[in-house]
Amino acid sequence: MSQSERLVLATRYRLVSEIGQGANGIVWRAHDDLLDRAVAVKELRPPEELSESDRVVFYRRTLREARAPAALRSTSIVEVYDVVIEAGRPWIVMELIEAPSLEQLIERSGPLPAERVAHIGRRLLEALAVAHRAGIVHRDLKPSNVLLDGDRVVLTDFGLAFSSGSSSLTKTGHFMGSPAYVAPEVAAGEKATPRSDLWSLGATLYAALEGRPPFERENVMATLSALANESAPAPQNAGALGPVVTGLLEKNPTRRLTQARAADRLERAMTGPRSGRRARPPRYRMMVVIGLIGATVASCGIGATALVVGMMREGSGPSPTAAAGSAPAASSSAAPAGAADSTLVIRARDAGCKIFVSVPGTRLTVLSNETLSVGTARQYGQPRLNAVVYDAAACEVWVNGKEQPAGTPGQRKSYTVQKASS
């Protein structure tokens, strides 16, 4: 048993066994004798070569690492319980999460399925949103700082985090963060912002999908060079997550996905097509205003100041202008006699062929407002006409002798036509 394992911190936190270690310290499994619960304790060991002033900065950063998550409340952010100074070193007491990191999972199993990566991304976005609302930027989001405890995703290690109200503890000329996951603007010397965290999130999701970060090279300098000079490669395993990852890896921070837009896109990727929902009613766009009506038209119930407006469902059927020049569709019967000389002809193919035909002008002249019997045709020779067909599948329409494409059941079509010049 090592000397550290025999330690009891602040007379209550008894170290049990080592969980893991990194460049600046060791994480221990421990027991809180006062509250009788298991905890994790992070022992910070500053490098031996640090000067006294640098050691002070190191300790201050440790306290900041504890304060940052302690001020936040989210199930996706590790909970910090206490900070202890013992044996000349700082120790951070936090909740014990006995789960692998995202980095360990990638190393063990390779790239993760897009569905799981989407879930991880959504939880990390929530954690970042909580931190950013509190004015805290993490600055070191990467797979090793993400723990996966079943469906719970936990962001840890706020050692490089800073808040808008705290002074910077980064020395000039010292690169802080992980080169493979740092935002390009931060690598170039600019101040980290919430959008820098979003870049790091994009690089983390890319690594989860592809098994490696987007700009990782053989050494730090090569990685930073690629980050500065190369475009982010498109992920090959992203599926519906592709636009999310590429949007987060936009090098220009002002064009990078915001937290809200990234969350929306992730939700869409997670839920997929809404196949079980009722179809939305068709959207309609305004086609043409026929004109102001000068008098009440009793036969169609239109008020004196109303506007008669043609409507066309978006994405279906030709526009009125295009309809006049369209090739004729196959017809079950020949055109009515005189159709070639008429401006407009409408014939009922099936029951339900309801039409409204008018002559535009300051005073509206209504020619037809009726439902035609099957086989019945109406012909109009006026130089200018407006028409509405309420069920395009039930009516056959000829404009200047040319049959118009049939519509779909229940589709409303409108026509604004002018007599062809002879």
UniProtKB/TrEMBL annotation:
Region (Disordered): 316-335
Signal peptide: none
EC number: 2.7.11.1
UniProt xrefs under SUPFAM superfamilies: Protein kinase-like (PK-like)
Top-level EC class: transferase
Keywords assigned by UniProt, alphabetized: ATP-binding, Kinase, Membrane, Nucleotide-binding, Serine/threonine-protein kinase, Transferase, Transmembrane, Transmembrane helix
Transmembrane segments: 287-312
Domain Protein kinase: 13-270
Gene3D superfamilies: Phosphorylase Kinase, domain 1 (3.30.200.20), Transferase(Phosphotransferase) domain 1 (1.10.510.10)
GO MF assignments: protein serine/threonine kinase activity
Binding site for ATP: K42
Identification of the protein by name: non-specific serine/threonine protein kinase
Originating species: Actinomadura parmotrematis
